[in-house]
Amino acid sequence: MKPDNKGSNGRKQPKKTLVDHVYHEIQNRILYNIWGTGYQALEQELCEELGVSRTPVREALIRLQRDGLVNVVPRHGMRVLPISATDIQQIYQILTSLESLAVELAAARELSARDYKSLDTALKAMKIAQDASDLKAWAQADEDFHYHLVALSANRILIELVDSFWGRAQRARLTMLSIRNNPINSTQDHAKIVDAIRRGDSARARELIEGHRKRGASDLTELMEKHLNILQLS
Fold it and tell me: What angle do CA 154, 218, 151 make, to 5 degrees?
């Protein structure tokens, strides 16, 4: 993909190597639960599905194992690892700290109308999806909002760190998407965060994102525990 190209979310994407391509193809199948917990595949099967040789597949699997998404067994391919309530809590602890710093930095900057446009567009999309009870569309708009929010920190290393943990959190969110309630409170949280940033109130913006993320982790943990209880009783 060329540097000027944009992804499905309208984001500019850096030039990708073949390993990057394979990594993201497998990652998306896991994050969006196309390949659920326990799914197994041999290297050769992955090569045939993705139309590539074994070398990029092996390198991509090493990265995915480092991400905690798969377990790689030499000469036997990979197995998708489960995600637990403890995983969610630990991921969100880190994500909360990183995003809190990001919004604090964003609120301290002199942002332009163009900067706010990306946040306002995501907020509008969330409200439309919420009113339509379209949780999938809401989740996409929510992802866009947080991406642009962190990007406004203008701290490249921080943005990369958040991105590395966002995929893990997204997997849990999408797994529980079909059984969660309409995210009215979450949408309201986003609007309040933007308002605090507009006012340059970095302390309030940080307080709001921390509360938002902590509630999100708590809700996801509760949903996962209920889901596991249902499976055990069925």
Answer: 10
Residue 110 backbone phi and psi in degrees, to 5: -95, 95
Ordered alpha helix ranges (H), 72-155: 85-108, 113-131, 135-151
Between the alpha carbon of residue 118 and those of residues 77, 124, 139, the distances in Å are 41, 10, 16
Q: How many whole angstroms from its chain centre is CA 177?
A: 13
Residue 9: predicted pLDDT: 43
pLDDT at 178 (0 to 100): 62
| Weakest mean pLDDT among 25-29, 52-56, 64-68 | 64-68
> How many residues are given for the chain?
234
pTM: 0.74
Whether the CB-CB separation of 8 and 141 falls below 8 Å is answered with no
H/E stretch holding 222 reads helix 202-233
Contacts of 121 by beta carbon, 8 Å cutoff, 6+ apart? 144
CA distance 137 to 131: 11
- How would CATH label the architecture of 85-233? Up-down Bundle (1.20)
- pLDDT over 60 at 174, yes or no: yes
Coil, strand or helix at 5? coil
Q: Kindly write down the DSSP assignment for every residue of 6-25, as one continuous string.
A: B-TTS-B-----HHHHHHHH
Who contacts 59 (Cβ-Cβ below 8 Å, separation ≥6)? 19, 22, 23
**Domain map of the chain by residue range?**
18-80, 85-233
- What residues does 73 pair with on adjacent strands? 77
Q: Alpha carbon of 55 to those of 59, 70, 158, 192: distances in Å?
A: 6, 17, 30, 47
Q: Specify the CATH architecture of the domain 18-80.
A: Orthogonal Bundle (1.10)
